[in-house]
Design goal:
Layout (H helix, E strand, L loop, with lengths): L7 H27 L1 H24 L11 H5 L3 H22 L1 H8 L3 H34 L19 H28 L2 H21 L3 H10 L1 H5 L15 H25 L3
Length: 278
């Protein structure tokens, strides 16, 4: 039986892409699973996130009604520290291959560079979503037990932390997505610059120095606008459950800002990966 000539390439190309992506996905998972540092970094991210959240929950008191604190954000404070480890993990996932020359083997096995980057992003996102979920749930559970002892009680207007509460659930889901976006941001930057130290420096500067620079600006209007485009300030607005009208940007809109930074980094990384020699 003969087939129309224009029908063959599409089927063949689709099948080849699926085969290449499957091999790339398996290879990236194997590399991540067998790299000892990767497992330790993921564990460190979880431990730091939970530990800092517990420390903050123990340190902050609510002596009377309307103390103005956001208990959910207090419990999830550790995300601001755990994200640094996630950024390091993401940078190492790419730069390690360039430093060892393994990237040439990877691109020989799977010539389509976009397929390779997509596979890396898929595996990295999956493991960060899993570890981020564990860290966030553990932080909220710890906060549920610690905060009432510091005055965050129903008598003071603070019911126990629960995922059955809409804002708390949104903060939890948003925090997990935030960590995944940080990982992809780091992946995109590392793919663009190739060197781990440079990539980590760029991502950490965006996360931690951006808010510092914002506070140095004297003009309130400019300060407000800078807060709206700061990856960390805007992205972590998704954790807020009280005084939402005081935020520089809405919770989901803020996470969208971080997503835009991430998309830009991945686009830059994919373009440079495609144009440059390995």
């Amino acid at each position: 039986m003969s087939f129309p000539r224009d029908a063959r390439p599409t089927h063949t190309a689709d099948g080849a892409w699926r085969g290449d992506f499957g091999r790339a996905l398996h290879a990236e998972w194997t590399k991540l699973r067998t790299a000892g540092d990767m497992g330790r970094l993921l564990l460190l991210a979880v431990v730091l996130t939970v530990a800092v959240g517990c420390g903050t929950a123990k340190a902050v008191k609510c002596p009377d009604t309307g103390c103005g604190q956001d208990p959910v954000r207090l419990a999830l404070t550790g995300v601001t520290v755990g994200q640094a480890v996630i950024a390091v993990l993401a940078a190492a996932a790419v730069s390690g291959e360039y430093s060892t020359g393994m990237i040439r083997t990877t691109l020989t096995a799977v010539p389509n560079r976009l397929t390779v980057l997509t596979a890396k992003a898929t595996v990295l996102t999956t493991v960060v979503l899993a570890s981020g979920t564990a860290a966030v749930l553990a932080s909220l559970l710890a906060g549920r037990h610690i905060l009432p002892g510091n005055g965050f009680t129903e008598a003071h207007g603070y019911p126990p932390l629960s995922l059955a509460d809409g804002p708390t659930l949104r903060a939890a889901v948003g925090s997990v997505l935030y960590l995944a976006l940080i990982a992809l941001l780091g992946l995109g930057v590392a793919t663009a610059v190739r060197q781990a130290a440079t990539a980590i420096g760029i991502v950490l500067a965006l996360l931690y120095l951006f808010p510092v620079v914002t506070r140095l600006v004297n003009d309130p209007e400019w300060q407000h606008h800078l807060q709206q485009i700061s990856p960390m300030t805007a992205g972590l607005a998704v954790q807020a459950t009280v005084h939402l009208h005081e935020l520089p940007i809405g919770p989901w809109a803020g996470l969208g800002v971080l997503a835009a930074w991430t998309a830009a980094a991945l686009l830059a990384g994919s373009v440079l990966l495609h144009r440059r020699d390995a």
